[in-house]
UniProtKB/TrEMBL annotation:
Nucleotide-binding keyword on record: yes
Domain Amidase intervals: 32-473
Catalysis: reaction(s): L-glutamyl-tRNA(Gln) + L-glutamine + ATP + H2O = L-glutaminyl-tRNA(Gln) + L-glutamate + ADP + phosphate + H(+)
Gene: gatA
Organism: Youxingia wuxianensis
An example Gene Ontology biological process: translation
Biological role stated in the UniProt entry: Allows the formation of correctly charged Gln-tRNA(Gln) through the transamidation of misacylated Glu-tRNA(Gln) in organisms which lack glutaminyl-tRNA synthetase. The reaction takes place in the presence of glutamine and ATP through an activated gamma-phospho-Glu-tRNA(Gln).
Protein name: Glutamyl-tRNA(Gln) amidotransferase subunit A
PANTHER family per UniProt: GLUTAMYL-TRNA(GLN) AMIDOTRANSFERASE SUBUNIT A, TRANSAMIDASE
Gene Ontology CC terms: glutamyl-tRNA(Gln) amidotransferase complex
Length: 497
């Protein structure tokens, strides 16, 4: 089948495995596949603002290598030749990396993040860098200095955040998969809003080297994809030990070949606190999901996790404290934006930071400095650290009773544009279901489980014990296979194959 970018039919997503086999059987060349995606990005990106930069030369040069391998009759690795994206906080040598902040506009890294080094060795086809909330701080992508990414299901709604661009690109079929980062939900929440799959791996499983830091004890890179198997394939590729990341935990066994194992006799935990204040339609979709699992032979275990009520304040104290320290490096001296007119170094630093950072980033730096200041350290930061220990322990106890914990990913569906700028605290509250996982360092995945009355996707979160990626991916895969036709919706845009 030849690819004709001008064909008028509605797009159809193909899985990584399907594209891999079509490349091998020469149904199209990698160059044709890549060009079809690049054309789609050029044609459609202005509607959803998923990409802030396209990288056609990088993409076509990888495609050329793949076509040469195919011509020599060589085997391809699973991700070889597959068109993908990177969030703009993942460093790419010689390609501008901005974190969607004015303070980093024009910054060209001199090294590649480890995840990008790994994927380049597999000849991944990088289509471009994706939109995000400034320094990954936000839940709607609207704090981006490039303006927010829009939801392909309804462009008057946001794609979510902070990895909103990656989710919009995958949902809009402008990329097969993307890498995002998740500090408090930034992979899972936009995946939920856009009706696709997003996984945050166990802390330390994927190298953070070259990921521009927001809150280092919580940040983790992971896959955003249109089906569970694709997410598993990408996870298998990037979950490698890296001596450049002191928190790296070492390679885990590949999981993508083990999907589809029976769930009979498995236990799903349902902590009541996760369902407090959840919108009716979301709650209903989750109840239906529980029934699907019951029909697969899973037993439900209901329990309380009262310590969860502290998760949100603990997250916002720790994340802001770490951010205030990490963002100290943007001072107009070493790299990035520098103010034009100043008298003396203090004024230079002050003006550079005042002009370069957006309002949300400044708010968090102020909050972070406040909770770390000598008079308040014990009352906020120290208390939050202690509570972090209690939250970790509560999850440990919970996993003694069940294999997987199920919850909504977000208590609602995608916000209308502008929601986040109205009330910051309201927006922070919507992170309630995603942040506990980062605090405890656990793996979690968001998968689609239905739609609300206006056709916006609803996401379900499956949380596993540390290093139990295989367990959550398998549980997610079984649900997806069972419900695919009701939970997945193509949007009429993107690449036409
Ligand atoms: N919405 C959360 C925040 O603003 C999570 C962001 C993230 O995971 N990067 O901090």
């Amino acid at each position: 089948m030849a690819i004709s970018p001008s064909k008028k039919e509605v797009s159809f997503k193909m899985s990584i495995k399907k594209l891999h086999s079509m490349l091998l059987s020469k149904e199209f060349s990698c160059k044709e596949l890549t060009q079809a995606y690049l054309d789609a990005v050029q044609r459609e990106n202005s509607h959803i603002n998923a990409y802030i930069k396209a990288t056609p030369e990088t993409a076509l040069s990888a495609a050329k290598k793949v076509d040469e391998k195919l011509a020599r009759g060589e085997e391809l690795l699973p991700l070889e030749g597959i068109p993908m994206t990177l969030k703009d906080n993942i460093s790419t040598k010689d390609i501008e990396t901005t974190c969607c902040s004015n303070i980093l506009k024009g910054y060209i890294p001199i090294y590649d993040a480890t995840v990008w080094q790994i994927l380049q060795k597999q000849n991944a086809v990088l289509l471009g860098k994706t939109n995000m909330d400034e320094f990954a701080m936000g839940s709607s992508c609207e704090t981006s200095c490039f303006g927010g990414a829009k939801n392909p299901h309804n462009i008057s709604h946001v794609a979510g955040g902070s990895s909103g661009g990656a989710a919009a690109a995958v949902a809009g079929n402008l990329a097969v998969y993307g890498l995002g980062s998740d500090t408090g939900g930034s992979i899972r929440q936009p995946a939920s809003f856009c009706g696709i799959v997003g996984m945050k791996p166990t802390y330390g499983t994927v190298s953070r080297y070259g990921l521009i830091a927001y809150a280092s004890s919580l940040d983790q890179i992971g896959p955003i994809a249109s089906c569970v198997e694709d997410a598993a394939l990408v996870y298998d590729a990037i979950a490698q030990y890296d001596p450049m990341d002191s928190t790296s935990q070492g390679k885990k066994a590949p999981v993508s070949g083990n999907l589809g194992q029976s769930l009979k006799g498995k236990k799903i935990g349902v902590p009541r606190e996760y369902f407090d204040g959840v919108r009716k339609e979301v709650s209903f979709a989750l109840q239906q999901a529980l029934k699907v699992y019951e029909s697969l032979g899973v037993q439900m275990v209901y329990f309380d996790l009262p310590v969860l009520k502290y998760a949100l304040p603990v997250y916002y104290i720790l994340a802001c404290a770490e951010a205030s320290s990490n963002l100290g490096r943007y001072d107009g001296i070493r790299y990035g934006y520098k103010t034009q007119h100043y008298n003396g170094i203090h004024e230079m630093i002050c003006k550079t930071r005042s002009e370069g950072f957006g309002a949300e980033v400044k708010r968090r730096i102020l909050l972070g400095n406040y909770v770390l200041s000598s008079g308040y350290y014990d009352a906020y930061y120290k208390k939050a650290q202690n509570l972090r220990g209690s939250i970790i322990q509560a999850f440990k106890n919970a996993f003694a009773q069940c294999d997987v914990i199920l919850s909504p990913t977000v208590p609602m569906t995608a916000f209308k544009e502008g929601f986040s700028s109205q009330d910051q605290v309201e927006t922070y509250l919507t992170d309630i279901c995603t942040v506990p996982v980062n605090i405890a360092g656990l793996p979690a995945i968001s998968i689609p489980c239905g739609f609300d009355g206006s056709g916006l996707p609803i996401g379900m979160q499956l949380i596993g014990d540390t290093f139990c990626e295989e367990t959550i991916l398998n549980a997610a895969y079984c649900f997806e296979q069972e419900t695919k036709t009701e939970t997945l919706k193509q949007v009429p845009m993107g690449v036409r194959l």
